[in-house]
Design goal:
The protein has seven helices and 24 strands. The chain has helices at residues 7-15, 21-25, 122-131, 138-145, 152-167, 177-189, 449-461, and strands spanning 29-30, 47-65, 68-83, 88-93, 105-109, 171-174, 200-203, 206-209, 214-222, 227-231, 240-242, 251-252, 257-261, 269-279, 286-289, 297-302, 305-315, 322-329, 334-341, 347-351, 354-358, 363-369, 375-382, 386-393. The strands form six sheets. The protein has a six-stranded antiparallel barrel. It has a five-stranded mixed β-sheet with strand order 8-17-14-10-12, with no helix packed on it. A hairpin with a 2-residue loop joins strand 2 (47-65) and strand 3. The longest helix has 16 residues, at 152-167. The chain is elongated.
């Protein structure tokens, strides 16, 4: 999920996986509860910026191209990510054919909001993370897997190869013989493990009521021993965090329910409640790009990191009092929008040219279908200057073989390995390949047919001179 720095940011990031397709699809219908693993509308967790491929070695990948087996070599291993509020993460890729772009912001999500939502082997990937490098030391792997001669680089590559087998059905084998043995061990031993819980969450992410009420409850979910609670600066005087009995609270544990107390007579308004914790993000949590297409990652290691969650409250003396939450529902291929009205008058809002009315005391669920990789941005408005903007991209599937759609060109370069990390090479068989774009050493390279054609032309012009041209894509190409 994500760290937050204000109400507008919370809403944008809380949805950050989901609707420019509202107009295109037009098929908005009332739906039941989302099939996500976590509570719909929850917010919070770690946000981080993708860094470089840091610990890696070479793997061989075999794929069918025009009916023939093509073998190509790639650098594969651990990426480093920097947590926005402090801390570092190590991640493996679970989206082989999608480019990884350095500098992209990611958020922590549950499996239901990622390509793992319908993957029957998701639990086996988590088993690999728990039983291989870096969670298990090189010495520990040597003893556990009976594999000698491993290094950090070869162990990371072997682990990534095993993960790709379950995440993308990719036939990947480490070039190093010791690494190959480790991959074989991991694939043979992998068993299903239960999905990890969020590092921190508040659900729902929005609640409305009237002055004089305790607004909520908001349920706290965390793997930390406790979370620190506070009102975000700007809340009206007297508005504070309380428990079910109205007692002021400053800390909460996993499963606790908290409320926002709004004293009677408080002028109509809004306020945000925040939870913050320092913890290690659980192994196996998925990380998806907040804006723009980039490889989906899975958490393999975490330092102590600062994670936050916020929820919005709004109140009014009379009239409509709206609240909106948005959650990605990968099982249904779109968004689940929950609009509620705690006021005494009906609330009508416009959603991309279509009007919806929520009666007093009513909660309405709207499903918005989206195409895979479809970007979205929309704003829902209401009385008392109520305005919530949601922005993101639907990223629920791993990319398939073949050319992948490119995003708008960016100045951000594709992620490159560290200087000591082997780069991707071309085919080790003759002929050209199909396949997706630059995977930043963790997926398809770009020895494209176009480059091959240029080389062939130069051969003819040069009367037999042979040229080998290779070019790496920049991010966004």
């Amino acid at each position: 999920m994500f760290s937050v720095r204000g109400r507008g940011t919370v809403r944008r990031l809380a949805a950050a996986t989901l609707v420019s397709g509202l107009v295109a699809t037009g098929a908005i219908a009332v739906a039941g509860p989302a099939a996500a693993d976590e509570v719909p509308g929850a917010s919070g967790g770690a946000t981080a910026t993708l860094g470089q491929l840091k610990i890696a070695d070479t793997v061989k990948v075999v794929e069918k191209v025009d009916g023939e087996d093509k073998v190509r070599e790639y650098g594969a291993g651990l990426f480093e990510m920097k947590v926005d509020n402090g801390g570092k993460l190590q991640t493996y890729c679970i989206d082989f054919r999608t480019g990884a772009r350095e500098g992209k912001q990611y958020k922590e999500v549950g499996w239901g909001e990622s390509s793992l939502h319908n993957n029957p082997d998701a639990g086996k990937i988590l088993w690999i993370l728990e039983n291989s490098y870096p969670n298990v030391s090189i010495a520990g792997l040597a003893e556990k897997a009976k594999v000698e001669g491993l290094t950090e680089e070869t162990a990371a590559a072997a682990t990534q190869a095993a993960i790709w087998h379950f995440s993308d059905k990719v036939d990947a084998t480490p070039k190093d013989e010791h690494g190959k043995e480790l991959t074989e061990y991991l694939l043979e031993k992998a068993t299903q493990v239960e999905e990890p819980k969020a590092s921190l969450s508040l659900s729902p992410s929005s609640f409305a009521g009237k002055a004089g009420d305790r607004l909520g409850p908001f349920k706290v979910g965390t793997n930390a021993s406790e979370a620190v609670l506070s009102m975000v600066p700007g809340a009206p005087a007297g508005v504070g965090v309380v428990d079910k009995d109205g007692k002021a609270v400053t800390k909460a544990k996993d499963g606790d329910e908290i409320y926002v107390d709004v004293p009677a007579g408080t002028a109509d308004g809004t306020a945000d409640v925040k939870a913050e914790a320092t913890t290690k993000v659980p192994l196996g949590r998925a990380f998806v790009s907040v804006k723009g297409k980039s490889q989906t990652m899975i958490l393999a290691g975490s330092s102590d990191s600062t994670v936050t969650a916020t929820a919005t409250t709004s109140w009014a003396k009379k009239g409509a009092v709206p609240a909106v939450t948005v959650a990605k529902d990968c099982a249904k291929g779109g968004l689940e929008i929950i609009a509620s009205n705690a006021g005494d008058e009906a609330w009508t809002f416009d959603l991309k040219g279509t009007s919806y009315t929520v009666a007093p005391g009513e909660k309405k669920t709207i499903t918005v279908p989206l195409a895979e990789d479809e970007a979205y941005k929309f704003t829902i408005t209401g009385p008392n200057k109520f305005s919530e903007t949601f922005e993101g991209i639907l990223d629920c599937k791993t990319a398939t073989p073949g050319p992948q759609p490119s995003e708008t060109p960016s100045t951000s370069p594709s992620v490159e390995p560290s200087p000591s990390t082997p780069g991707a090479t071309g085919d080790t068989t003759t002929g050209t390949t199909t396949g997706g774009g630059d995977l930043a050493e963790t997926g398809s390279s770009n020895a494209t047919p176009m480059i091959a054609g240029i080389a062939a032309a130069l051969v003819v012009i040069g009367g037999g001179a042979v040229f080998f041209l290779r070019k790496k894509k920049t991010a966004g190409q």
